[in-house]
Amino acid sequence: MTEPATKRVTSADVARLAGVSRATVSYVLNDTPRQTISAGTRDRVREAAAQLGYAPSAAARTLRTGRSDVVLYLLPDWPIGPEVGLALEALSSALARHGLTLVVHPGNREDRPMTELWKAITPAAVIAYAEFSDAEIAAMRSAGVALVVALSRKRGHGRELAVPQELLGRRQAEHLVRAGHSRLGYAYPDDHRVRFFAEPRLAGVRAACAARRLPTPVGLTVPLDPAAAADAVRRWRATGVTAVCAYNDEVALAVLAGVRLVGLSAPDDLAVIGVDDIPPARLAEPALTTVATDQSVLGAHLAATVVAAMSGRVAPTLPTGVVRVVTRASA
Amino acid sequence: MTEPATKRVTSADVARLAGVSRATVSYVLNDTPRQTISAGTRDRVREAAAQLGYAPSAAARTLRTGRSDVVLYLLPDWPIGPEVGLALEALSSALARHGLTLVVHPGNREDRPMTELWKAITPAAVIAYAEFSDAEIAAMRSAGVALVVALSRKRGHGRELAVPQELLGRRQAEHLVRAGHSRLGYAYPDDHRVRFFAEPRLAGVRAACAARRLPTPVGLTVPLDPAAAADAVRRWRATGVTAVCAYNDEVALAVLAGVRLVGLSAPDDLAVIGVDDIPPARLAEPALTTVATDQSVLGAHLAATVVAAMSGRVAPTLPTGVVRVVTRASA
DNA sequence: GTGAAAGCGCTAACAT
DNA sequence: ATGTTAGCGCTTTCAC
Q1: Which member of B72, B111, B283 has the closest CB to residue A226?
Q2: Residue-level pLDDT at B193
Q3: Dihedral through CA A185, CA A190, CA A194, CA A198, nearest 10?
Q4: Residue B279: pLDDT above 70?
Q5: What is residue A209's three-state secondary structure?
Q6: CB distance B105–A103 less than 8 Å?
Q7: Residue B65 has what pLDDT?
């Protein structure tokens, strides 16, 4: 409580206690290759370090080596669901396997530009949703950030860093069509910040319809509110739509609520399919059919991409089979 | 693309371009108090910095000053919901207002102890759910971490850092009792990792019942699965339970699914109340009544607590009215 | 009003 | 097989 912050334990302290030089301490504790240290010395050093509770200074190490092993993940400023938590966990584990540490910065609307972040952290790489401006990239580089990757889709940018959003929409449509539907609807989210994801997903649905010479899906914005969703449901019914692809599970849940509110039932009157497979999906009435992404393989892939890029090697390609339809009652 | 990583821009570069010394650059860019620099010099320095795209080295600054302005938030290794995202966003904004930067580390099951983290980051403070061992705290302190706060409840630990979990349970029970129920059930989560939260919430429900001389709530574990939840519902009905408090909204949604599956309806046959107010709550059948926490005031409070503790001042008390019941159809 | 210089704790060439 | 040494980029007395 009233403890006056203890003096920091440095490698010099360890060296003194072990009766060696600081260099030796560094060699031992870092397992520096092509350094031959006698087993006895190693033990003495390690023991001294343990006894003193020595923990190397991150700042000093980063300053000296010029590279940190932190990967910074910038969250978007729109609400995130449980699936993001899973994805981060997977990414974190995968990066850890490569000696990298993941830290996440919550996006917040009001914050000044994230310039403050490079001042506080000096990440080896930055992963973000949005595309960065050239000026931002320049600023990061000069701040020592080696690599910047954006998760958003980029026109023919080569390697995929995340699941192509189009694919999600396409899978939804394919499932619905295979079930016999031909006139589809698309339930658009009410949050404009999320359009970057919604657009390509809708495009995927459109593409799937076009490929089968089916009519263009009729898109409607669906707020997360039963009454508003009921309106949308009525409109779809009036247009002859028999099945809808929702932007994500929450929107799909809203559509389902709308269906119940107008006294209809899914999937008979209107089939519904979501994206994400959040836990509430299987608890809905009826249980929600949805397109799920395997976050752990995705996380591993992203990690591999970052690591490859950092070491100048060529990035791996996205494994197939990361997304699959979870068939339940609603479609 | 083939760009050979640009040389880092240092304060020396800025000094050279501005025709001043590095010390002056530092004074200007940091607005160092009680330093009198002519307006002309200030402008020259700032312009030079901008032109060069100068960003100070976080590592060097931290090494020199001995303190970083990063606050590290360690996520637990259990699945987190959307409410955590909101809380983090609020906390991040609040900390930013105090010049601190929040970074979050996803908890992952398999990771080695988080020792790696102090090596990578040198936070000014660490916020975590679990209680730390003395050894861990010692390690952090010697790594330069000034402050460690745990979110979990501690026997009479004085200041509250988060909403007391008991309060959540108590509010649930009070709402149910006020609605005329006297025999309550408690829907326990199926994930043992979350017991640290579930226990005190249940304790709150118990306390509320005891205070009114009502029978002890009958606790049942409810997996996020309709069939399993239906079993629980049958058991509660057999015991005369007419209303249940669920650990959180997801569990509540499961109970609701169980109620429908056995052909009953809420709230008439069994009233249900959750915790969190996740988006799917209002989309459920029936719409879920739940206890919501105001994450933005909570975030601001946590930030204030951290800041106060770091500067040795006394921590503020938790404002009242952070939690409220959102009454919908299910209870 | 501005500059020179001394480190913060660490690693990696270079000595021995 | 281990020690010496020179910085990494920054802040901060202390001189001028």
Answers
A1: B283
A2: 85
A3: 10
A4: yes
A5: helix
A6: yes
A7: 85
The yes-or-no answer to whether A11-56 and A68-163+296-321 have a common fold is no
Written as one letter, the residue type at A278 is: I
Closest CA to B88 of A277, A194, A85: A85
Tokens of A207: 């593409």
Q: How many angstroms from the chain centroid is the CA of residue A309?
A: 18
Chain A residue with CA closest to B85: the answer is A80
DSSP for residue B114: T
Contact across the interface for A142 and B6, Cβ inside 8 Å: yes
Spatial separation of the C-alpha atoms in residues A189 and A299, rounded to whole Å: 25
Mean pLDDT of B255-260: 97
CB of A66 within 7 Å of some strand D atom: yes
Nucleotides on chain D within 7 angstroms of protein Cβ: 1-5, 7-13
| Contact between B222 and B281 (Cβ < 8 Å) | no
In this structure, whether the domain defined by B68-163+296-321 belongs to CATH 1.10.3300.10 is answered with no
Q: What single-letter DSSP state applies at residue B111? A: P
Whole-number Å distance between alpha carbons of A32 and A289: 53
Domain ranges of chain A: 11-56, 68-163+296-321, 165-293
The rounded distance, in Å, linking the Cα atoms of B143 and B227 is: 50
The whole-angstrom separation of Cα B38 and Cα B21 is 14
Residue A74 has a pLDDT of: 86
The dotted CATH code for B11-56 is: 1.10.260.40
- A262/A114: higher pLDDT: A262
- Check if CATH label 3.40.50.2300 holds for domain A165-293: yes
Task: Of A76-90, B22-36, B270-284, B315-329, give the range with the top mean pLDDT.
Answer: B270-284
* Residue linked to tokens 């995705």: A298
The residue-averaged pLDDT of B227-241 equals 97
Residues of B in contact with A116 (CB under 8 A): 96, 101
Q: Which window residues (1-40, chain B) lie with Cβ within 7 Å of strand D?
A: 8, 10-12, 22-23, 25-27, 29-30, 32
Q: Which residue of A has its CA nearest to B63?
A: A59
Q: Which residue has the tokens 């339940």?
A: A328
Q: Do A279 and B224 touch (CB under 8 A)?
A: yes
Question: Regarding predicted confidence, which is higher, B269 or B126?
Answer: B269
**Overall average pLDDT of the B153-171 stretch:** 71
The residue that leads in pLDDT, A252 or B45, is A252
Q: Is A212 exposed, middle or buried (0-12, 13-18, 19+ CB in 10 A)?
A: exposed
CB count, 10 Å around CB of B68? 27
| Helices B11-18 & B39-52 angle (0-180, nearest 10) | 130
Position B159 pLDDT exceeds 80: no
* Residue closest to sugar C1' of D8 by CA: A64
Confidence of residue A1 (pLDDT cuts 50, 70, 90): very low
**pLDDT tens figures, A138-182:** 777 767 676 777 676 554 444 566 778 899 999 999 999 999 999
Average pLDDT, whole number, for chain A?
85
Q: Residue B156 pLDDT > 50, yes or no?
A: no
Least confident stretch, A205-209, B1-5, B279-283: B1-5
CB atoms under 10 Å from CB of A96, counted, come to: 18
Cβ contact, residue pair A117, B139, below 8 Å: no
